[in-house]
């Protein structure tokens, strides 16, 4: 009588199958993650492109043609981390729903609290940064934004927003706020290009006493030149990748990854309305003779980074606030032919 023999995997065969599956997963998962990130990158670029169209329309509504919508806090002295960070994002966006930390246990909530709401411990609510007071948000929504929706405007949110990196060479935001999404803490994933000259009383982290723009902030959009290379707004890490603002830091690119998992590359919107992934390069150096020929006050005032620029040369800069009377007598850029369009519409 014949016995029926049951076929089965041996232990070795089973281990081989498991190893093959693990190998396939190790090959496929990074590709899937990369595909997901490409999708997020496309959403981000679409957001930037749409915001560019909205800002062109916004500028056309006002005689002073504000290239970057002017928030009320942009044109007055502010505490250090407000003018250094929060104001760069305040041209549009939502109400913050997490504390913007300026220290481990202290910070600001950029929101107007409702009658029954209380600011988290250690924080102070700043209602002037609420979504209803952000100029481009008001323009896009026609001023009809409810409290229910003031934290849910996806146009201003990059799906890969992970906040400023935790790196000692990132100096555009307080270290206590690192790795916390800008959309949640600052109300906007996209930082405006607010290249400027600032003076602060007493140095350190004191409030600003006067500001003068050498970039698109405060200028009439119709006067700008070379707009396909002039940065308008973008993912904030790029502005750190091109080098520290604070003296004594690295003299070169800050070698970090952007939100879309690419080293020294992030998404930017340019004043011509184009949005593209852009490689960060360190500041282009000009020799003294060239600066004299260009009639520029100081070579540090020019912001050129490879094929990208954040300065408006030869278009004059813009007075934002404070007494610049001595500087404005200069025949040199950025003070020569300066613009005075800073008033919020």
Please tell me what the overall shape is. globular
Main sheet specs: 4 strands, antiparallel
Q: Write the H/E string, N to C.
A: HHEEEHHEEEEHEEHEEEH
Q: Which class of secondary structure composition applies to the elements?
A: alpha+beta
- The strand order across the widest sheet is 4-7-8-9
Roughly what fraction of the amino acids lie in strands? 5-15%
Gyration radius from CA atoms, angstroms: 24 Å
Query: How much helix is in the residues?
Result: 25-40%
Distance between the termini: 99 Å
Describe the structure.
There is one protein chain. With 345 residues, the protein is α+β, with helices and mostly antiparallel strands. It has one domain. The chain has helices spanning 11-60, 80-89, 135-141, 182-185, 236-241, 288-294, 325-328, and strands spanning 100-103, 106-109, 123-125, 191-192, 196-200, 208-213, 231-234, 265-270, 275-279, 304-305, 308-309, 318-321. The strands form four sheets. The protein has a four-stranded antiparallel β-sheet. A hairpin with a 2-residue loop joins strand 10 and strand 11 (308-309).
